[in-house]
Amino acid sequence: MKTKKAQVWSLDLMSAMALFLVGIVVFFTYSINQPGEAEDNLELLFYEGKVIASSLLSPGYPTQWDSDNVATIGLTDDGRINNTKLKELYDMTSITEDNDYNLSKNILNTRFDYYIFFETNMTSIAPDLDGIGKLGTTRDNVNAKNLIKTTRFTVYQNKTTPLYLYTWEE
User: Each residue of 21-41: pLDDT tens digit?
Assistant: First the structure.
């Protein structure tokens, strides 16, 4: 005569084994893919930095854009940094009621934070201006988990000077 206790016990054992195996598979899948995620993030940061730098060194759209009609942020005219466009970007990201750093990130089509600066300070835009980007950031003070520095050369204040772009995630 068969007892039901043995049948129930074997069903419990099979359920526990299945649950244990699923847990092991999930654990190993996650641990194997984890290093790849970090590499993918760095590659994405490199790519975003290149795209943002290319956009910044274009005339933008429309060519004479301002914060009300900008579709693409660009800072140059005839290969030279246009101080009017630089001031518009500064105004979009500076401490004012109209501060729209997140809007500038959307226009630049990035989810990462950014900070732009030149070899020399941007005193033509604002006194003691170090750079443009996320508030509270300076070229020497970036609170970043992963930080990528992109460098492009341009003409600023009638001198060939590097434009530096930091992109990072917090």
Answer: 998 888 877 777 666 666 677
